[in-house]
Known about the structure:
The protein is an alpha+beta fold. The chain is built from 7 helices and 9 strands, in the order ααααααβββββββββα. The strands form 2 sheets. Strands 1-2-9-4-7 form a 5-stranded antiparallel sheet. The longest helix is centred in the N-terminal third of the chain and has 11 residues.
Amino acid sequence: MAKAISHTEWFLAPYCIGNKLRGLRTEKQLTLARLAAETGLSTALLSKLETDRMVPTLPTLATICRVYGVGLGYFFAEATEHTLSVTRKVTSQGRGRSTDPGGVILLNPGVPRRQMDASMVDIAPGGVTTVPEAKPTSALFLYVLEGRIQIDAGGMRETMDTGDCAYLESDLPVSWSAAGKQRCRVLTVTPSKSATSPS
Length: 199
């Protein structure tokens, strides 16, 4: 039977106090033992606070704030934006048939005002793909999931194998094609059209 949470735990959950405590300790490169020595609190208590198994009292939080050099407001600031988009078990239709032209599957659809577009690009042997709606000074990150691709960017040509990745910023046309006789899949990340378009 699941443990019932208190009203206090429910109310504080959106503030992610445990994650913030752990993040500060990691940033300061402190062990739990060192933080315990600095604060006078036990490592067991600090561990429970970081994993949200215990709600900190204000005096306890104030003691920790002194060591980290932050105010109590750091833990209670309202998030201005928080988005999590999960796309599960992405598969490309028709994979394995050499006559299929391939395609692009957007991996983060439905996120309003997103800052980037992540896609899985499926390229058939001999198929060529261009960066969708490439803009001047556009940025592109790509990672080869399987197969080999050839990139043509501004007169430069590179062949990349499975596991290779590239980052490119260019105002020149960019295209890539399957190198060899196998299909290939590439993960791409580009600035979102909605993030780069004028308001």
